[in-house]
């Protein structure tokens, strides 16, 4: 007896995607973000070609045309879609436990955006892949949502090929801003006080309980624990230093600091202070971890 063919819905149009995104965000984000912010985010997702991460990484690491790519925390699939438009074989996993939860999940939306079945429901602490499976792994705005950052990193490095790279971007919670609720926030605000503050502002604190505060220093320390078989690049620092070398700063203040960094003796101290200031005030952490091609395990 022949099996019946599986019906695959047609790929979503922009308007269909917009409708589903509005429903998804209304179910999951009401009480967390204002309707105005939700609409702005929906429009940004619809316009997003998913290639921003690829372009950012390309300045520091070569993504081969035949690279196998994994997006951990793939959301509604924009990055995976952008990779596949470039011919990269990309896959995504998403636990979909953001906010309150609802009948419509981000994985369901992602699966309607690409004809191939490339998305799975899974968590970063237990990746359903064999060792050394992927050339490039992205975790964009994910690390602050995972329950166990050390386990997620260990699993990520387990499935990373030698000479592969991991891109990690997340908020820097030393800022006076909470990027999910889109409101003023005290740096590393204690959760107990944070929940009371959110209620006073008429917000649902459910998402706060799902967040793990991240900072540049904490993320750097976590990634540095990977061992000697890895090269760690702080992309914010690298971009600052590239502008310093080219003397291409736009603001007068940055040009003044760059000039001071070239002073004899004091220049090194000023450069160190500038790097510390950058790590404290930068809105987000952005790091690239590159595995040594001769590495055979996560602790070479």
Assess the beta-strand content as a share of residues.
5-15%
Q: Could you state the CATH homologous superfamily?
A: Vaccinia Virus protein VP39
CATH class: Alpha Beta
Given the C-alpha coordinates, what overall shape results?
Answer: globular
CATH topology description: Rossmann fold
C-alpha end-to-end distance: 53 Å
Please explain how this structure is put together.
Helix 1 runs antiparallel to helix 2 (35-47) and helix 10 crosses helix 11 (266-281). The relative contact order is 0.12. Helices cover 39% and strands 15% of the residues. It contains 11 helices and 7 strands. The chain has a single domain (14-236, 284-291), classed as Rossmann fold (3-Layer(aba) Sandwich), CATH 3.40.50.150. It has 300 residues and is of the alpha/beta class.
